[in-house]
Amino acid sequence: MPLKELRAELRALAKPRQAEVLMRFFKTGPGQYGEGDRFLGIKVPVQRAVAKKHRDISLGDVKKLMASPVHEERLVSLMILIENYNRADDAGRDKIIGLYLANTRNINNWDLVDLSAPQLLGRHLHGGNMKILKKLARSSSLWERRIAIVSTYYSIKKGEYDITLELAELLLDDGHDLIHKAVGWMLREVGKRDIGTERLFLDKHAAAMPRTMLRYAVERFPEKLRRSYMTR
């Protein structure tokens, strides 16, 4: 019973004190974005090793892991999807992405999104139709909106910025701090590769951007330039 063995292995690795720290860090209290999430307290490299060891479990079992109330089980499920995407043929990759998109409600904290979105959805859509990212960026789900913008990191690393800038513009008026941070982060990544392109976007939008978004976007700028944007 591969799934039972995987879960037993994770529970054997649990660190209750670390779990308490993680529950505070990932805002699991009442009314917070991670409300009700449960942690075992396992470090990411250890989870990655577990995922690699159990990467041959079925997609049905991966789906069960994705629906788990335990954070580490959901993270391991995404690591397994990445492992399998990397070695799948086109049909297999389509099936993996189908599973990913059908379960976005369970990709429900920023680390789960940030680990998986570029390596799965961003990679899968690169060079093709980005319509799904625009749809996700307009979603009522905080996590789907974050998946949309963070997925573009894959294109950014390929030197392609148009989809990032388009989604950043769509998300300028977003009300959630986690989206402000994600958009600012992606703009900063654009600027690390092409500061001129980032500055063109900021010259147009900086005055209207949420302060957190702008602060993240200009974090790597020279001090004088950073201040000039922050005081607009």
Question: What do these coordinates show?
Answer:
The chain has helices spanning 2-12, 16-25, 44-53, 59-66, 71-87, 90-102, 110-116, 118-125, 131-137, 142-151, 153-157, 162-170, 177-193, 195-205, 211-217, 223-230. The protein has 16 helices and no strands. The protein is mostly helical. It starts with a helix and ends with a helix. The longest helix has 17 residues, at 71-87. The model has no long low-confidence stretch (mean pLDDT 96). α5 runs antiparallel to α6 (90-102), α8 (118-125) crosses α10 (142-151) and α13 packs across α14.
Main attributes?
232 residues, mainly alpha
Low-confidence stretches: none
- How far the N terminus sits from the C terminus, by CA atoms, comes to 60 Å
**What is the radius of gyration?**
19 Å
- Main sheet record: none
What's the number of helices? 16
- Outline: globular
- Helical content, roughly? 55-70%
Report the mean per-residue pLDDT as an integer: 96
SSE order, one letter for each helix or strand: HHHHHHHHHHHHHHHH
Number of strands: 0
Structural class determined from secondary elements? mainly alpha
Please report which band the strand proportion falls in: under 5%, 5-15%, 15-25%, 25-35%, 35-45% or over 45%: under 5%
